[in-house]
Structure formats: structure tokens, C-alpha cells
Amino acid sequence: MRVAVIIFITLCLMPGRGICFSVIGCTGGSLMFKCTYKSNDQHKVKYFCRNRDCTIGISTELQRRWVNNERFNLYDDENSRFFTVFIRNLSREDEGKYTCGDKQKWKHDVTLVVNNNSSSCGTSVIRSAYIGQTITFHCKYDHKFKTHTKVFYRVNVDPVHVLNSSQSSQSSEEKFILTDRQKDHFTVTIRDISAEDGGVYLCGVERDGSDKPPSETSITHITFIKEIELNVYSQITSVQVQAYISKSVFITCKFPQEFKENKKFIQKDSSQKIPVDEQKRWVRHDKVHMYDDTSKGLLKVFISDLTAADEATYRCGVNTADDDLFTEIKLTVSQVDHFRESSKSVAIIGESVKLTCNYPEKHKIIKHICKENKKKICQNISSSEKQRFEFSESAAGVFTVNISNVRLRDAGVYWCGAETRHTHLTSVSLTNKHELTSSMLRAITSLC
Predict the structure, then answer these.
(1) pTM for the complete prediction?
(2) Which end of the chain is more exposed for a tag (fewer CB within 10 A), N or C?
(3) CA–CA separation, 189 and 180 (whole Å)
(4) ω before 360 within 30° of 0 (cis)?
(5) pLDDT tens-digit map of 269-311
């Protein structure tokens, strides 16, 4: 092994061979390093490529401007005497020998190593935040990098630039704060988030070809160990939901996936929050029924037998470590005028039955039907059963639902109504109630 190292170093020092160095990246991660050159090579074409014919790589003769070729990016600044190479989304197939240099005089041999060590390579994540919020996330690293410099970059049209470093002096008033206690991770805090802060961020460790901290004379590179995609939303989404006295309304609030296990709540005007204490089970508070669907990040709210007193502004929210995130729902409850009253329908096993539903003509709606369960909560028809439910317009402000091949289990109470969709919310205003009488269906079944 010692002989091989001596031969490698000797070849690197031979005239015309330039410098040899190694750079190390993570599968799925990114990598950035620099190729140095002499000042008199400033205006010559620079390149970074693989194989003798440079079929994989990138080149440029432009100054102070990023150029890209798929996952490869290159930036040449004649004032710095080096050009920067940035590679994204590394895979094990990228591992191998490369060269960087100009097209005439010099080149450096670069060995790219790509590993998938879970202790030193983090995973890409998606985070969500709301305008004005402060968010903190962790970037794990292997213990052997505890004294290395940590960096925080943002991928942009440039395509990448540094936001902070563990070697930089920082104040609590800064927007981007990097804290490294040299344990097994460093933290990054983004304060007072704005819409412009949405995008992709990178956590990195500065290193050289070994696991030891870089020296002043070593050729360093940055191994990006984690990628964070940050989505930014408005803190309060305010939507209008129209419903009707003596009818029901079904509201579904959607939350970012990272909060799907957090406690949810409903709040009416400025009254006390109504918490949802159980997950994946309907819970009731007076006439308000709630279901926390953690698998989908949804809070379902069903309010039945509406009265004028139910008209209010509701907050459909989730508790987070920093603040509550919520959708503001302005529920209006109107008198029923042209809507049909509840009706009973008789059906014959194996044949069809039609249910009629009215809705406000001014609303562009998605037609909806649901069936009451034993708890008087109207639940969606299953996808397997929904194939027998056909919607059609029958008149202005009226649609019909045709249930084909009626079965005994179809007996029950159905609600139909208008469904409207918003960014984080789906509401169904249920206006018509129909009952397929089980006694009649049983009687017909016994006669057959």
C-alpha cells in the first residue's frame, strides 16, 4: 500500500501532470470544489470532464457567470485564480477519474469518490413554513467531522451561494443562523420567513481528501450532506364556506406532511380551542365531529343540524413547536329557500334509483354525495362503491345522482351537495337529505 501511494504522489508531481486530489460526495447529495490555475491562464477555456474525449462534464470560456450542463455547473472568476465546479444529485455511477484544466496548457487529475454511508450522508427532506414564522432544522454529520467547518448554502439561479458558515461571526439578529456544538449535528435557523425564502437549501461539511480537518495548505472541497426543500405558505388562509339552516357542512383541512402527527384543533371565533385528542377516530364536541387522519395530514370536521348561531369564523389548525398553523373559515348559514326538504326513496334490489340535489346556481361546484353512519356523520362513498353512482345535471341549480344495481347494504340516509376546493381546504355544503328505506328493501328481498 505504501508503494502505491508513493507512485501516485510521484506521478502527480511529474512535469505537465499538475495537481492530483480527491473529492468525496454522498449518494443523492451535492459536491463543490475548486480547480486552481495561474493568472496568465485567465481568459482561456476551462473544463471539467470525464474520459479522454470529455463526453461527460462541462466547459466554459465565460467569466463570472455560472454555466451548466445537466447536473454539472461551472463558474470561472479570473480575479480568484480558480474556477468552481458544482455537481448535484450524485450517484455511485459518478465515481471515478476526472480532469479539470484549460484547453491548452494544464490540467489537474481529480478522483471523485461517492459513498452512501448513512452516518455521514443525510437524506433529502421537504419542510413547510408560513410567512413570518421562524423555522429550525438539523443537519446530521459523522462524529469524525465534528471539528470541520460547517456551511449552509442555497440553490438558486446562480446556481448556488453561501448563506452562512460555522467560522463566521453571527448575531441573533441575522436571518440565517448556523449553530454547531460539535456533537453529531448542526442546526440552521431561518428567521422571519418571507415568500422569497422558498426553495432548496444545502447543509455541507468542508473537508479534503481525508477525514481529518483541512489544513491551510490542503485542497478543500465541500460535501453537501443534506438537501432541504422549503415550501412557504401564507400564515392565514381565509376562505368562505356557505351552508344552510337545518343542513350540514363537511370541511377538510390539509396540513403540511411534517405536522401530520401533531395535535389538531378547531376554534370558533375567539372562544377556547376544541382539541382533537384522538387520532383516526371520530370524536364529538356538541354538534361538531372531528377526525384526525394522520396518514394523509387531514383534519375532517363535520357540523350537523346547522342553526344561525353556528355562523362564525372558525380556525382549523395544528399545534407546532413555534406557533399554531391554521386555516381561517368564514362560515355563513342561510335560510333554506329553494332547496328540497328531506325525502324517502324506494328502490328495488338490482335496479336503479335517482336522488335529486339542489345547489346555489351562482356557485361553480363539484358534485358530492355521502352516506350517514351510525354516529350521524356523513362519510364519503368508497371508491369501489362509487362506480355505481353517476352524476348528471337535470336543471339549473339541480343535479341528480343515479345509483345503479341497488343492493341491500345501500339502504340508509344520503346527503348530497356542493363541494368547493381551496388551497388547504375542501368544503361540502350538504343541502338535500334522502333515505333509502331499509324496511322496503328487505321486504322486496324477501319476496324475491
Answers:
(1) 0.58
(2) N
(3) 12
(4) no
(5) 888 889 998 888 899 988 899 999 998 889 999 998 999 999 9
User: Which positions ≥6 away from 317 have C-beta within 8 Å?
Assistant: 253, 264, 265, 266, 267, 273, 324, 325, 326, 327
- Written in H, E and C, the secondary structure of 139-166 is EECCHHHCCCCEEEEEECCCCEEEEEEC
* Run of H or E residues at 2: helix 2-13
* Region of 145 on the Ramachandran plot (φ > 0 left; ψ -120 to 50 alpha; else beta): alpha
Helix, strand, coil percentages, rounded to 5, for the chain: 10, 50, 40
Distance CA 142, CA 165 (A): 18
In angstroms, the CA 79 to CA 146 distance is 33
The mean pLDDT of the chain is 82
**How far, in Å, CA of 392 to CA of 373, rounded?**
25
Q: Hey, what long-range contacts does 319-322 have (CB within 8 A, 24 or more apart)? A: 319/262, 319/263, 319/264, 319/265, 320/259, 320/262, 322/133, 322/134, 322/135
The grid cell for 349 is 334490489
The distance from CA 427 to its chain's CA centroid, rounded to whole angstroms, is 23
Write out pLDDT tens, residues 73-119: 998 877 777 889 999 989 889 999 998 888 767 788 899 999 877 66
437 φ, ψ (degrees, to nearest 5)? -70, 125
